[in-house]
């Protein structure tokens, strides 16, 4: 492993078993993530900022290996005191946004940038992007303390590609409940006049219009909501699939902060 100086600051390190299950479940079904992993005979994934315990890194490795059996995973922490001995085929090391000099096919960076200023996001993204293997992807996002509400952005070497929202229908009444867990690049833009605010308002309106489907359960209601979102001109990259989560993925252009030009 290349020795480089870690870039970033030590954050709180809060974590928990299965906290990131929703993003993990999504990743092992997403065609873009699967393509990134299958681009190499032995793909490398990094869990950046796994926190005070290695649980989520070990969980990620196990889930990725169900679709990419030869996948190698490295858990990186900027705080040397949090680095644990290697276990279950997962390596652990000190590292930050420079990714310890590694060239991964996939990076998951969850609940890391949430503790930074918005002005620091672009540079942090760019530093990780420079380290990606060809065709590599970054999944950068935020979730609540036990992973009931999650939002994440997918980036490639050129920039952000999409935003995904995922939540447990038992703990959220409306799509906009996820606003407090938007990634740092978006959370301060949830105000009138911004795209992400308009998207969440439209999602709430469509959710309300789909109330007649509530008798069949929240997933049926969400399926109708997705149909209504499309009817309202919202482009989506995937629709509802058989999942215990409520999910929606939209192109970055749907929610990108003003001003924004498509790459």
So what's the overall shape? globular
Q: Distance between the terminal alpha carbons, to the nearest Å?
A: 33 Å
As a whole number of angstroms, the C-alpha radius of gyration is 18 Å
- The H-and-E topology, N to C, reads as HHEHEEEHEEEHHHEH
Total count of helical runs of at least 4 residues: 8
Give start-end ranges of low-pLDDT stretches.
none
User: Class by helix and strand content?
Assistant: alpha/beta
Provide mean pLDDT, rounded: 91
The counted number of beta strands is 8
User: How many structurally independent domains?
Assistant: 1
Strand count, sense and barrel status of the largest sheet are: 8 strands, mixed
Q: Determine and state the CATH class.
A: Alpha Beta
* Residues in helix, %: 25-40%
CATH topology term: Rossmann fold
Oligomer: single chain
Strand order of the largest sheet: 3-2-1-4-5-6-7-8
CATH A-level architecture: 3-Layer(aba) Sandwich
The share of residues in extended strands comes to 15-25%
């Amino acid at each position: 492993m290349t020795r480089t100086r870690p870039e970033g600051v030590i954050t709180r390190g809060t974590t928990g078993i299965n906290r990131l299950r929703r993003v993990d479940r999504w990743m092992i079904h997403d065609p873009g993530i699967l393509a990134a992993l299958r681009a190499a005979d032995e793909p490398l994934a990094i869990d950046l900022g796994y926190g005070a315990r290695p649980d989520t890194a070990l969980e990620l490795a196990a889930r990725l290996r169900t679709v990419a059996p030869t996948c190698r995973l490295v858990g990186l922490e900027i705080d040397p005191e949090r680095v644990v001995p290697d276990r279950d085929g997962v390596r652990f090391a000190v590292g930050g946004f420079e990714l310890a000099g590694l060239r991964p096919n996939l990076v998951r960076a969850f609940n890391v940038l949430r503790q930074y200023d918005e002005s620091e996001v672009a540079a942090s993204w760019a530093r990780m992007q420079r380290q990606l293997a060809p065709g590599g992807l970054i999944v950068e996002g935020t979730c609540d303390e036990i992973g009931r509400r999650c939002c994440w952005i997918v980036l490639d070497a050129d920039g952000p590609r999409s935003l995904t929202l995922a939540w447990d229908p038992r703990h959220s009444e409306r799509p906009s409940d996820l606003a407090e867990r938007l990634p740092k690049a978006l959370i301060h833009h949830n105000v009138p006049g911004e795209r992400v605010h308009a998207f969440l308002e439209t999602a709430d309106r469509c959710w309300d219009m789909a109330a007649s489907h509530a008798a069949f359960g929240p997933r049926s209601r969400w399926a109708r909501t997705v149909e209504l979102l499309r009817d309202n001109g919202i482009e989506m990259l995937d629709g509802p699939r058989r999942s215990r989560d409520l999910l929606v993925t939209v192109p970055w252009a749907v929610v990108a902060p003003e001003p924004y030009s498509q790459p």
